[in-house]
Specification:
- It is a single chain.
- The chain has 401 residues and is an alpha/beta fold.
- The chain folds into two domains: 92 residues, Urease, subunit C, domain 1 (Roll); 270 residues, Metal-dependent hydrolases (TIM Barrel), CATH 3.20.20.140.
- 33% of the residues lie in helices and 21% in strands.
- Strands 1, 2, 3, 4, 5, 16, 17 and 18 form an eight-stranded mixed beta sheet that branches. It has a five-stranded parallel beta sheet with strand order 11-12-13-14-15. Strands 6-7-8 form a three-stranded parallel beta sheet.
- Helix 5 packs parallel to helix 6 and helix 7 runs parallel beside helix 8.
- It starts with a strand and ends with a strand.
- InterPro entries: Amidohydro-rel (IPR006680), Metal-dep_hydrolase_composite (IPR011059), Metal_Hydrolase (IPR032466), Metallo-dep_Hydrolase (IPR051781), OTAase-like (IPR057744).
- This is Amidohydrolase family protein.
Length: 401
């Protein structure tokens, strides 16, 4: 693999929040240290002072969610879902996301295909199928659908498991298939047809059993939860990341800090649902659940940020709304300083994934995943919120876009 030299770049040190003007050399897919000789056959990009950031990380995606009607995915053949996933992943890469964490849908096949170059897109940290109780957020059967739950589990869907023994077996099975983390639905949600968003799901015994299985495999649990009651139960059970968390309270904030857990707000998806959810397949029952969720999410972000909670970038977009992925930067910048939003999509996200020093940084030895911007995101977050400002996306020291 030839080297890549970025010449005359404005390099953002995300950790310090400061720029350094200079060159950046990439060798063997990694960022090389200062003073290393430039290979004669190295490719050269003259940037004329353009800004360079680490490649972005979106820690809450569903790359197989080609429609917002998740129940419909159960009737799509895997080959068709995969074709859509390839298109969705390519779009994510072009928007500057060189790594994503999929929280139900992507499996080892998609991850391996991306790693082998068969699919163009961000590298995948995947969980396979998320876990749901009967009638929970991952059970997409309508009230009149008595099809056994295991027959509706598909590429793009969750698996239903009830009881301590069953959830242990389900978690072990996803870990057997290489899951980087386990996703559990600990509360109701918007896209699910038969539960309430304010419900709690799974008993404490079931939640603790799932956490025990993940920890035994040196993995962790991410929990879907909205209300403080659901969030607090999940944190007390030992989960590492809370997905959404729009209705957290002071106890939630205390638990997040005490446990060293992460909060992954997903504001862009509610913004998109309010904007045109009916146009991209969101069922009417789900659209009724959206009211007020974005405003609550903004308040939760502000509460968590002021308290020093570890915040991670996530979007949770579905169907055609994937194109709004970068809008999350604009929404969060209403509460946070731009550098804090950038950290949520780089260094802090890398911590959550257990990839500190490898992803989300321009440090020596890190993976050479980079984006080149027209504009200064510290002065105006639109440089990231508008993908048109992304001049180049570099993945593993190769120009990918």
């Amino acid at each position: 693999m030839p080297g890549l030299l970025l010449r005359d770049a404005r390099l953002l040190d995300v950790e310090s929040g400061e720029y350094r003007q200079g060159d950046l050399l990439c060798l063997d897919g990694r960022i090389a240290g200062l003073g290393r000789p430039v290979p004669a056959d190295a490719d050269v990009l003259d940037l004329d002072g353009a800004v360079v950031l680490p490649g972005l990380i979106d820690a809450h995606v569903h790359v197989t969610a080609a429609t917002a009607d998740l129940g419909e995915l159960g009737f799509w053949p895997p080959s068709y879902v995969t074709a859509h996933a390839a298109r969705i992943m390519a779009g994510m890469l072009e928007r500057g996301f060189t790594t994503v964490r999929d929280v139900s849908g992507a499996d080892f096949g998609l991850a391996d295909a991306q790693a082998e170059g068969l699919i163009r897109g961000p590298r995948l940290a995947f969980c396979g199928h998320g876990l749901s109780q009967t009638g929970g957020h991952g059970d997409m059967r309508a009230r009149g659908d008595d099809t056994p739950a295991d027959l509706r589990c598909c590429l793009g869907g969750d698996r239903v498991a009830d009881g301590v023994d069953a959830v242990r077996a389900a978690a072990r099975d996803e870990l057997r298939k290489g899951a980087d983390h386990i996703k559990v639905n600990a509360a109701g949600g918007i896209a699910s047809p038969t539960d309430r968003i304010d419900s709690t799901q799974y008993s404490m015994e079931e939640l603790r059993a799932i956490v025990e299985e993940a920890e035994a495999a040196n993995r962790y649990v991410a929990a879907h939860a909205y209300t403080a009651r659901a969030v607090n139960r999940a944190l007390e059970a030992g989960v590492r990341s809370i997905e959404h968390g729009n209705y957290i309270d002071d106890r939630s904030v205390d638990l997040l800090r005490e446990r060293g857990a992460y909060l992954v707000p997903t504001l862009a998806t509610y913004w998109a649902m309010e904007r045109d959810g009916d146009a991209y397949g969101l069922p009417e029952a789900s659209r009724r659940k959206v009211a007020g969720v974005l405003e609550a999410g903004m308040d939760a972000l502000d509460r968590a940020h002021r308290a020093g909670v570890a915040l991670v970038f996530g979007t949770d977009l579905l169907g055609p709304a994937h194109r709004y992925q970068n809008e999350e930067f604009r929404l969060r910048a209403k509460v946070q300083e731009p550098i804090d939003v950038i950290r949520s999509a780089t260094t802090t996200a890398a911590e959550l994934l257990g990839r500190t020093g490898e992803l989300g940084t321009l440090q020596d030895g890190a993976r050479a995943d980079l984006i080149v911007l027209d504009g200064d995101p510290l002065a105006d977050i639109s440089a990231l919120a508008d993908p048109a400002n992304i001049r180049h996306v570099i993945q593993n020291a190769q120009v990918a876009h």
